[in-house]
Structure formats: C-alpha cells, structure tokens
Amino acid sequence: xxxxxxxxxxxxxxxxxxxxxxxxxxxxxxxxxxxxxxxxxxxxxxxxxxxxxxxxxxxxxxxxxxxxxxxxxxxxxxxxxxxxxxxxxxxxxxxxxxxxxxxxxxxxxxxxxxxxxxxxx
Length: 121
Description:
With 121 residues, the chain is mostly beta strands. Helices cover 12% and strands 31% of the residues. It has one domain (6-111): 2-Layer Sandwich (Alpha-Beta Plaits), CATH 3.30.70.2330. The chain has a 6-stranded antiparallel beta barrel.
C-alpha cells in the first residue's frame, strides 16, 4: 500500500452486532471476499472476538463523503489488512486503513486488545 492515507466506511452494522462493537482506536481486520455472491470487490470487516461485523461500503449511496469505497481500496490492500476506527455513528463507522509499516509496528508492540496480541489468540 502506498503512503497516502486511506479512509473508508464500514456499513451493514445492523446485519451483525450494530455499532456497539466498535470503539474509537480499535483495530478491525479487513478480509477480501472475491467469491462473494453480491460483490466481487467485497471486503468483510471482522472483530477479534466476534468475527464479521460489517463490510466496507461499495455503493455511492453508502460511502461517506471523503472516504473510499471497497472498489477503490481493493487493489491497494492485501487479501487481509487492517484499519483503525476513527468515528462511530449509528449506521456506519469511518476507519483509516493501516499501512504495512503501522501493522508491523502494532505487531511488535503487542497492542492490547488487538489481532496482534498473541496472548489473545
């Protein structure tokens, strides 16, 4: 991924656990779903403890202004990547896609309550 900051919108919260599972600063795993029946550029969002919590928005009706759709970030991230929650609203979450360098830094720090803390695996 390049050095440009990428922000995206997580939607579909009502189909899972709602917005209560997101807190500002928490890390969300992004997983590409190329075999998704509805969207070939689908990117699922997962929480460490409960699994899938939504999807990256990929429609002009759901992408928050100033953020990028799943289609726009799909080729900029790996099959699995991560983002950090920045804002939480009733129906969506704004998150910053983490750079590879930031992911490595978090892994080394064993940040508590994230996917990178081996004590939580």
